């Protein structure tokens, strides 16, 4: 098994006939395909790269053994390929393994999938882990990406970028590129240039609430209103955040399972964990009660700003 962050180096030193890109991060899988194309000099020109959606084994064999017209190696990318069940699955795996065994270097077969479970025992197929990266791995990616562009970034700044981007690699790439174009990556330039959405601001707000700092909490809230956020929308984010915090505090699920079940990025789970560590379960249950009361007030068309101010002060009393 190859980790995503190792793939570029592995491609420099070895030639692969078949790879399985698996995991829950679509950006990593797209980037892995781009890295393979770059390593093998393959262009998406309609001749050197075949993209197959839900192909059959015969579709795969035909694509692999139809040579590229302009490059020595062809890339065949299979998305959403499904093996049949029962005895037919073993037969399909055997045909895929035979296709890989017949590779003479003229093609590279790539499967893109959520799980490597049914692919793991296919002879000649190397798997690439494209599961969401943790913050430390994202920071390493940022440092490497900046180094290749000739811009220095230290570990603390890389960590800050990852945090501000909620560990969402799509955003990390965009914001890091923005900082590279600026030419200098410091704590000040990150604060100035990196977009922090309302989700991060809600985490910041929760920190002020947990610190029992009403002036800071109200300052953050009023700053969000001043930049155009609506009180009702912010209430929805606060409600979702504290509900997530409660689930993290009381659940036995792993971080990855929790992120999948709640439909959020790992960064959001890490924020929730940071906040959950500062409360007891009963305090968080009381927070949800306060949020439910605020919801009733909003539905009764009570002034939204007044409701949010009262809610913030109630949460501070937890």
Explain this structure.
The chain has 318 residues and is of the alpha/beta class. The protein is 59% helix and 9% strand. It contains 15 helices and 6 strands. The chain has helices spanning 7-13, 26-40, 57-64, 87-101, 135-148, 155-164, 169-182, 187-193, 198-210, 214-226, 231-250, 255-262, 266-276, 281-299, 304-316; strands spanning 2-3, 18-22, 49-53, 74-79, 107-113, 126-129. Strands 1-6-2-5-4-3 form a 6-stranded parallel beta sheet, with helices on both faces. Helix 3 links the parallel strand 3 (49-53) and strand 4 (74-79).
Summarize the SSE layout with pairings:
Blueprint: E1 2-3, H1 7-13, E2 18-22, H2 26-40, E3 49-53, H3 57-64, E4 74-79, H4 87-101, E5 107-113, E6 126-129, H5 135-148, H6 155-164, H7 169-182, H8 187-193, H9 198-210, H10 214-226, H11 231-250, H12 255-262, H13 266-276, H14 281-299, H15 304-316
Parallel strand pairs: 1-6, 2-5, 2-6, 3-4, 4-5
Helix pairs in contact: 1-2, 3-4, 5-6, 5-7, 9-10, 9-11, 9-13, 11-13, 11-14, 12-13, 14-15
Q: Major beta sheet, specifics? A: 6 strands, parallel
Order of helices and strands: EHEHEHEHEEHHHHHHHHHHH
Radius of gyration: 24 Å
DSSP strand (E) fraction? 5-15%
Number of helices: 15
Strand order, largest beta sheet = 1-6-2-5-4-3
Quaternary structure annotation = single chain
Uncertain stretches of 5 or more adjacent residues: none
Measured distance between first and last alpha carbons:
47 Å
How many strands appear in the DSSP assignment?
6
Can you give the mean pLDDT? 91
Coarse structural class: alpha/beta
Shape: elongated
Helix content: 55-70%
């Amino acid at each position: 098994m190859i980790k995503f962050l190792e793939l570029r180096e592995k491609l420099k030193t070895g030639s692969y006939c078949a790879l399985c890109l698996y995991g829950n991060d679509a950006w990593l899988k797209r980037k892995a395909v781009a890295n393979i194309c770059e390593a093998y000099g393959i262009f998406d020109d309609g001749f050197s790269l075949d993209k197959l959606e839900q192909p059959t084994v015969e579709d795969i064999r035909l694509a692999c053994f139809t040579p590229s017209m302009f490059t020595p190696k062809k890339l065949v990318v299979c998305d959403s390929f499904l093996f049949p069940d029962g005895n037919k699955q073993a037969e399909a795996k055997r045909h895929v393994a035979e296709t890989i065994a017949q590779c003479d270097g003229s093609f590279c077969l790539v499967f893109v999938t959520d799980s490597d479970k049914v692919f793991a025992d296919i002879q000649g197929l190397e798997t690439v882990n494209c599961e969401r990266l943790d913050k430390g791995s994202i920071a390493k990616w940022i440092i490497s990406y900046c180094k290749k562009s000739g811009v220095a970034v230290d570990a603390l700044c890389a960590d800050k970028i990852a945090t501000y981007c909620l560990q969402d690699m799509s955003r990390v790439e965009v914001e890091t590129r923005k900082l590279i174009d600026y030419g200098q990556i410091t704590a000040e330039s990150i604060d100035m240039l990196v977009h922090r959405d309302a989700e991060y601001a809600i985490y910041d707000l929760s920190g002020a609430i947990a610190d029992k700092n009403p002036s800071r909490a109200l300052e953050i809230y009023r700053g969000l209103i001043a930049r155009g956020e609506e009180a009702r929308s912010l209430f929805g984010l606060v409600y979702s955040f504290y509900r997530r915090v409660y689930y993290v505090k009381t659940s036995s699920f792993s971080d990855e399972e929790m992120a999948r079940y709640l439909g959020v990025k790992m960064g959001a789970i890490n924020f929730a964990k940071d906040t959950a560590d500062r409360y007891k379960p009963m305090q968080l249950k009381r927070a949800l009660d306060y949020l439910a009361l605020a919801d009733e007030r909003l539905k009764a068309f009570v002034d939204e700003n007044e409701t949010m101010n009262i809610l913030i002060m109630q949460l501070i009393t937890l």
